[in-house]
Design a protein that fits this description.
This protein is an alpha+beta fold. Among the domains are: about 220 residues, no CATH class; about 100 residues. Helix content is about 30%, strand content about 15%.
Length: about 625
């Protein structure tokens, strides 16, 4: 963020409360969150994605509270990169960025000078009167120097002090909580309340009359202290949501002002294309997008509105782990498969989970438990109702299935039948012909003994998927690697966390607990991948060596391309490519087991195996 020559930051004028601040033009009201002059109905509240008390859409600051001077706005903001557009103003009025040099709107306008005390931070928040946008209003503190001004400094040591980064993270997080609890005392005395323990995000709320306003303070230098396999951004170091990833080269620039500018661009992008501010995790951002849609549909009375959780119903007979696990399979190849092969490629379904989420019909409401003939009658309906079915999967060796593909379902065994629960997606898949990824079963062959079926079903995630799909296209078309990665984390994180009730404990968040929706999405992606593998085998005579989730690895000659021409979601795209050197061929043909095959493939691709689901 470059200042014009001679431009100076405004300072806080604490002794001149009558001075009116210069602010940016107000935004137009959101479709979902009234702002500006629009008053909420008496007692109105807006659901808040973190599952805490509701937030008022009416800002609690006003001109009488204004004790800050803002500097003249900048006319021009120099972009961090020439390949990406500058920030728009979609996040202005909803977020403020604080650096050691001063404070800014996300679009780059200068607001105030340095915030060098917690008392001034309190005044900034009250004066800014930020409105929520799918998530509470946000104050982003960028750079360690800005933290030092506020007294928010920790010294947990460094990576050389510990053998496990998790030990360092835990130590840092505990120290940060203690520092913040002590430093925030002036704000708590002034009427703010903490929602949960403070950490890299400080959740604050303040109640005035019947309304509660909320603000989240995100401390950028300490985001790395947050790490949790169940609730965070995964177990990869440095994958930090909207901030990007150091390992992927998408984190903010090192210098504070360019970092603030790039952060502002990302906040504005998120507000413009998703209609929400980024949540404290990508999964929460995905939830916020869906909640915006839910509020719009509730007001209009049009579209599917799901208001209750959909936990796994009580099942007779134990089910092993995930109802619909993602596939993971490897085989030892025959040497002749490499006779004319020159490359090893990995193809991957493009945004597979997002594609399936937008096209599937999901069940909701209170499910009915059916047994015996009633369950069979439901399965034989013209349209299979959404639900769970207890079936007997035949032994794989008893079926005419290709031996160079995994079995059609991870619960299947080669040498014996298995009784298990499957979703309606898998029920349809088993009835599909072998050439289409199924086993060509009749319903009688599956011996359906029980079912849980839902009274209502529909494309509950269609608009959610459309918003994310269109946003992803913009990121891809503009080569915006940071945003593309963040969007992938949003939909994968949200769908992944549908299964975990602890993620959605607050009453207004429980409708996000939908483990059967997640199971159906995984089953659909798995079936689609198998269908593609069967088509590739028919057309080319080539079979995969390995599959993980929705990616498939093939040895091929240069003349054969197994990726799809279409750029639609769910279609196969070339993910990785490596030359089949003599050493690699030897490693693959001389491998004693699938473990050695996996090691060889991982080494040549030198990348993770998550896929682009």
């Amino acid at each position: 963020m470059a200042l014009k020559k001679g431009e100076q930051f405004a300072l806080f004028e604490l002794d001149t409360p009558e001075a009116a601040p210069a602010v940016t033009e107000p935004l137009q009201p959101s479709l979902f969150d009234p702002i500006g002059d629009e008053e909420p109905e008496q007692g109105q509240s807006d659901a808040e994605p973190d599952g805490e008390p509701s937030e008022s859409a009416t800002p609690d600051g006003n001109a009488e509270d204004a004790e800050l001077d803002a500097s003249e706005q900048l006319d021009d903001v120099v972009s961090v990169t020439t390949t990406l557009p500058p920030a728009g103003e979609s996040a202005d009025g909803h977020a403020v960025i604080v650096t050691a040099a001063g404070t800014y709107t996300p679009s780059g306008h200068v607001l105030t000078g340095p915030v060098d005390s917690v008392e001034k931070l309190d005044k900034l928040i009250r004066w800014a009167a930020l409105a929520p946008l799918g998530a509470p209003a946000q104050i982003w503190v960028v750079g360690i120097d800005a933290c030092e001004m506020l007294g928010w400094i920790i010294d947990p040591g460094n990576e050389d002090d510990v053998d496990d980064m998790e030990v360092l993270r835990t130590r840092a997080a505990e120290e940060l909580t203690g520092v913040l609890q002590a430093a925030l005392t002036p704000m708590l005395t002034a009427g703010w309340e903490l929602r949960g323990d403070p950490g890299h995000v400080v959740h604050l709320s303040r109640t005035t009359g019947k309304f509660t306003s909320m603000v989240d303070i995100v401390i950028e230098p300490y985001v790395w202290t947050y790490w949790n396999k169940d609730f965070g951004w995964g177990n990869r170091v440095g994958d930090m949501g909207i901030l990007g990833s150091p390992t992927a080269g998408t984190y903010l620039p090192d210098d504070d002002l360019p970092a603030a500018q790039e952060l502002g661009r990302r906040l504005a992008w998120c507000a413009q294309h998703l209609g929400v501010l980024p949540g404290p995790t990508p999964a929460r951002t995905g939830a916020a997008v869906l909640d915006k849609i839910k509020r719009e549909r509730t007001r209009s009375g049009k579209g599917i509105v799901v208001t209750a959780a959909g936990p796994v119903p009580p099942l007779d007979g134990e089910h092993r782990g995930d109802l619909e696990p993602a596939v993971g399979w490897t085989r030892v190849p025959d040497p002749e498969e490499f006779d004319d092969a020159t490359v090893l490629v990995s193809i991957d379904q493009r945004a597979a989970y997002l594609a399936s989420a937008g096209m599937l019909e999901f069940g909701y409401g209170k499910p009915r438990h059916l047994r015996a003939e009633d369950a069979m009658d439901a399965a034989e309906a013209v349209k299979t109702p959404f639900g769970l079915w207890r079936v007997t999967l035949p032994a794989g060796n008893m079926l005419a299935l290709p031996d160079k593909l995994p079995l059609p379902h991870p619960h299947m065994l080669a040498d014996q039948p298995v009784q298990t629960w499957i979703t309606s997606v898998s029920l349809d898949a088993f009835c599909a012909p072998v050439a289409d990824g199924g086993i060509g079963a009749e319903l009688d062959d599956l011996d359906i003994t029980e079912a849980w079926v839902y009274p209502e079903q529909g494309r509950a995630l269609d608009k959610w998927a459309k918003i994310l799909r269109e946003a992803r296209k913009v990121a891809v078309d503009t080569n915006d690697a940071a945003i593309k990665r963040f969007l992938g984390a949003c939909y994968k994180g949200y769908i992944g966390r549908m299964v975990n009730p602890d993620m959605w404990t607050a009453k207004q968040m429980q409708h996000h607990h939908q483990p059967l929706w997640r199971a159906a999405i995984i089953a659909h992606c798995r079936w689609r991948g198998r269908r593609v593998a069967m088509r590739i085998a028919r057309e080319t005579g080539r079979w995969p060596l390995r599959t993980v989730t929705d990616s498939w690895v093939y040895p091929l000659p240069d003349r054969i391309d197994v990726a799809d021409d279409s750029d639609a979601l769910g279609k196969m795209t070339l993910e990785k490519r490596a030359a089949l050197t003599d050493d690699l061929v030897a490693a693959l043909t001389e491998a004693r087991d699938t473990h050695e095959i996996n090691l060889a493939i991982k080494a040549v691709f030198a990348d993770d195996d998550e896929g682009n689901n």
